[in-house]
């Protein structure tokens, strides 16, 4: 979509862009249809994958917390077990970031679509073209991504918050065990 938006922007920079108003409208209309198709695809994908992701993220949270707790508790007793738990903690953290990668790419693409729409000099177009571009910008401001549950977006920020939460458990246990 970004490439097509750049083509529309190139049309608007030419002197005869008002004469090509119908061609611009046709291209913008195609973009609106493409965006609606992609939104429908992501909503369908979220319906099927959401229960799996909720369970997977819950398992990662439990895995990070349990392995971190065992790592702290076994640190003085058995260093070998503590290192294994540290490896499991690292793998759980890595899995979370790998699972968030596709959704992060979609999230970034929505931001890029909004920025490209805004940079097309949309305010110079006819009223019907402006309305179509505003529609694209409004739809792209509501991010189409993979969600965990009804409202949480699975992206790098959410992964960071989950890791930060599990690390706070580990630090509190370290203060309890005085390590």
Please tell me about this protein's structure:
This protein has helices at residues 2-12, 21-73, 79-118, 127-141, 156-177, and strands at residues 147-148, 152-153. Helix 3 runs antiparallel to helix 4 (127-141). It is elongated and about 75 Å long. It has 179 residues and is mostly helical. A two-stranded antiparallel sheet has the order 1-2.
How is the secondary structure organized here?
Layout: H1 2-12, H2 21-73, H3 79-118, H4 127-141, E1 147-148, E2 152-153, H5 156-177
Antiparallel strand pairs: 1-2
Radius of gyration: 24 Å
| Number of helical regions | 5
Distance between the termini: 53 Å
Mean pLDDT, to the nearest integer, reads 80
Query: Beta-strand percentage?
Result: under 5%
Structural class: mainly alpha
Main beta sheet, described? 2 strands, antiparallel
Share in helix = over 70%
Oligomeric nature of the chains:
single chain
**Helix/strand order:** HHHHEEH
Give the tally of β-strands. 2
Overall 3D form:
elongated
Low-confidence stretches: none
Strand order of the largest sheet: 1-2
